[in-house]
Design brief:
By secondary structure, this protein is of the alpha/beta class. It has two domains: 117 residues, 3-Layer(aba) Sandwich (Oxidized Rhodanese, domain 1); 114 residues, Rhodanese-like domain (Oxidized Rhodanese, domain 1, 3-Layer(aba) Sandwich). The chain is built from ten helices and nine strands. It has a five-stranded parallel sheet. Strand 8, helix 9 and strand 9 form a beta-alpha-beta unit. The longest helix has 10 residues. The chain is globular. The two termini are 35 Å apart.
Length: 272
């Protein structure tokens, strides 16, 4: 299978063999489609995260629960992504959003990778016209149970549970997004954005492995990854795989589900 993360040189050498997917998303209400229309990598197709990579949110399920396999397949098929298509995805924040599509595809056994550095790694002109698409056939498949974790699993002491959000949210700083602030008891803070350098590219492999080891990820202990809504948690999972430390599980509901259940405990102790 394709490595989980590839660089711009790899993309240049294999451009004719892949579908390039623009997966931008903004919590502040900006339009990902408008960003795509204003300038995207040549030939890239736009993949709408909230329409195709998530089901409608709810307090019971979280802001971005996984979509039905049929919805996911419909969206990819319409974007020219079929059963045998190799996908490289990018965004404009170092890959922490586009990781959602890459993780979903890889969990189903499809070849997909994240473009290291994302939009900023490209040093050529951008396109503003939508890329032509030849519809393909993507066969719906159930989400594999062994790649997913429940809320109970996220709190189980035998698992290394990591929180991909920024540290202030982990520490309990109210953010106006969720009804309660803090983190899942026993979780460790591993902000996905701290895996990136100032240019939005991944830190060197040894540095990443040191960061992962510091929170107990050693390739042996089972890992559960969560974030605010199950999107950026996927970036941590790809980084773990990139570092050669196995495959963790995603808690799809993440904090947006946990925080709405008043019966579940919350911690605010900083984790450094």
């Amino acid at each position: 299978m394709l490595p989980p993360i590839v660089d711009i040189a790899w993309l240049a050498a294999h451009r004719d063999d892949v579908v390039l997917a623009d997966v931008r998303f903004y919590l502040d209400g900006r339009s990902p489609r408008a960003a795509y229309d204003a300038g995207h990598l040549p030939g890239a197709v736009h993949v709408d995260l909230e329409r195709w990579l998530a089901a409608p949110g709810s307090p019971a399920e979280g802001r971005h629960p996984l979509p039905s396999p049929e919805t996911f397949a419909e969206g990819l098929s319409a974007r020219g992504i079929g059963d045998d298509t190799i996908v490289v995805a990018y965004d404009d924040v170092g890959g922490v959003i586009a990781a959602r599509l890459v993780w979903m595809l890889r969990a189903l056994g499809h070849d997909a990778a994240l473009l290291d550095g994302g939009l900023a790694a490209w040093n050529g002109p951008l396109e503003t016209l939508e890329a032509p698409v030849v519809p393909a056939r993507f066969t719906p498949k159930p989400w594999p149970a062994d790649r997913l974790a429940s809320a109970d699993a996220a709190a189980a002491p035998e698992n290394v549970t990591i929180d991909a959000r920024q540290r202030d949210r982990f520490d309990g700083e109210p953010d106006g997004i969720d009804p309660r602030a803090g983190h899942i008891p026993g979780a460790r803070s591993l902000p996905c954005r701290e895996h990136l350098d100032a240019d939005g590219r991944l830190l060197p492999g040894p540095t990443l492995r040191e960061r992962l080891a510091a929170v107990g990820i050693d390739g042996e202990a089972p890992v559960v990854s969560y974030c605010g809504s199950g999107v950026t948690a996927c970036h941590n999972l790809l980084v773990i795989e990139h570092a050669g430390l196995g495959q963790g599980r995603l808690y799809p509901g993440s904090w947006s589900q946990w925080a709405h259940d008043a019966t579940r405990a919350v911690e605010t102790t900083p984790d450094r």
